[in-house]
């Protein structure tokens, strides 16, 4: 629809689609500023800042202000007509004639125009509400994307501690002749690998931080508060979702606009009343005055009739669009809910059992290896199993958070 604009946001996928060379250059630029003073903020604060700073929302505010100002244009009289006539129109003498005429709309024209403009102002407010929704979703995803990076970083630190102990044990066993140098080399390689990953994670966090800063649209070097629970918490709505309410309100308001537009075009078919005043000389003597009154009758009103019919068709189109959006949103929510339950089930396993198994495996394997009760290859096998569980847990939390945010903020289309 020509009267509708869609606010677009850069998503995380946009960054992934950039050429590798460009990504490296961007990342180097980001990491140079990442170590500067950072302000830790909560999600609530991040959302508050985004609603205050986001330029798209400021543009939406200006649109509301503009449509509100245009309400004053409801009364639309024709331009004042002033005419002068001079010449020999009464006698051979040169006389003068000055006339003024003004036509005013009759009937419900002014009322219909005002009602239409009031509905357009309300429609601008509904559009802004949708834009706020999109900003909230983008900020929430970016916020927890950063926390995901932090959780990966913490896991990396934990693994570094594990393999550092492994390296010490391997070196001790090698010195006492209990094992070969292969264990020491393998342990050193793993520690070096983890240290390299740590450096790479710093770059990842710099990218995540700039993504959050982009959506909040601030020059401040802000980061999420690391004390925030890694698992996203939200209350599921048992009734209509916020997305459904926003979409319904938007389309219903759009229908209301077209209804008022239909009325405005119909009102344009009514006549206009004209009032005038004239003054003239006769034989260059005296000043004669008078008043005029008349009507402008739109004999050829097919144009406004056609526009009224078109507005009526737009009402039907908006109703169909609303029906389609409801069906699409309902199916999307069912799909998102199913995926959310799947991710929730996986997370519950790691929280209730998986992590405990991983810690038990690591502790037992370390003690057994240190005491010489376990071979190097068995130790590595168990260690990799435990590490894999911890990695899966971090991914499970991340997948759960992404799914939870999507359930709370399903994607709105076609508005």
UniProtKB/TrEMBL annotation:
Gene3D superfamilies in UniProt: Outer membrane efflux proteins (OEP)
Signal sequence bounds: none
Keyword Acetylation: no
Location(s), subcellular: Cell outer membrane
Predominant location: membrane
Superkingdom of origin: Bacteria
Keywords recorded for this protein, A-Z: Cell outer membrane, Coiled coil, Membrane, Transmembrane, Transmembrane beta strand
Coiled coil: 106-136, 184-211
PANTHER family for the chain: OUTER MEMBRANE PROTEIN TOLC (PTHR30026:SF20)
Protein name in UniProt: TolC family protein
């Amino acid at each position: 629809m020509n009267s509708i604009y869609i606010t677009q946001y850069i998503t995380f996928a946009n960054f992934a689609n950039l050429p590798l060379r460009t990504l490296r250059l961007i990342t180097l630029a980001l990491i140079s500023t990442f170590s500067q003073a950072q302000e830790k903020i909560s999600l609530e604060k991040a959302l508050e800042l985004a609603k205050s700073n986001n330029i798209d929302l400021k543009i939406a505010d200006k649109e509301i202000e503009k449509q509100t100002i245009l309400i004053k244009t409801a009364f639309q009289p024709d331009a004042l007509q002033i005419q002068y006539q001079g010449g020999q129109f009464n006698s051979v003498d040169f006389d003068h004639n000055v006339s003024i005429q003004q036509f005013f709309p009759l009937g419900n024209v002014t009322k219909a125009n005002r009602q239409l403009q009031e509905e357009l102002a309300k429609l601008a407010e509904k559009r802004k509400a949708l834009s706020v929704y999109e900003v909230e979703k983008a900020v929430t995803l970016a916020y927890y994307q950063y926390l995901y990076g932090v959780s990966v970083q913490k896991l990396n630190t934990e693994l570094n501690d594990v393999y550092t102990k492994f390296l010490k044990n391997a070196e001790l066993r090698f010195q006492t002749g209990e094992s070969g140098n292969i264990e020491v080399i393998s342990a050193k390689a793993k520690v070096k690998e983890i240290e390299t990953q740590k450096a790479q994670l710093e770059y990842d966090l710099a990218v995540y931080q700039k993504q959050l800063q982009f959506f909040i649209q601030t020059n401040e070097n802000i980061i999420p508060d690391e004390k925030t629970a890694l698992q996203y918490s939200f209350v599921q709505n048992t009734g209509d979702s916020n997305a459904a309410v926003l979409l319904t309100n938007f389309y219903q308001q759009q229908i209301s606009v077209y209804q008022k537009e239909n009325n405005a075009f119909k009102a344009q078919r009514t006549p206009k009343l004209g009032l005038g005043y004239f003054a003239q000389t006769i034989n260059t003597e005296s000043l004669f005055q008078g008043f005029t009154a008349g009507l402008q009758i739109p004999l050829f009103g097919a144009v406004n009739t056609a526009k009224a019919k078109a507005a009526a068709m737009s009402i039907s189109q908006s109703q169909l669009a609303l029906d389609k959006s409801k069906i699409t949103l309902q199916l999307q929510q069912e799909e998102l809910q199913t995926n959310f339950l799947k991710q929730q089930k996986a997370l519950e396993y790691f929280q209730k059992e998986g992590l405990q198994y991983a810690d038990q495996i690591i502790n037992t394997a370390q003690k057994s290896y240190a005491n010489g009760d376990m071979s190097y290859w068995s130790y590595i096998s168990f260690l990799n199993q435990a590490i894999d569980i911890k990695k899966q847990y971090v991914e499970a939390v991340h997948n759960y958070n992404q799914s939870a945010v999507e359930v709370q903020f399903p994607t709105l289309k076609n508005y």
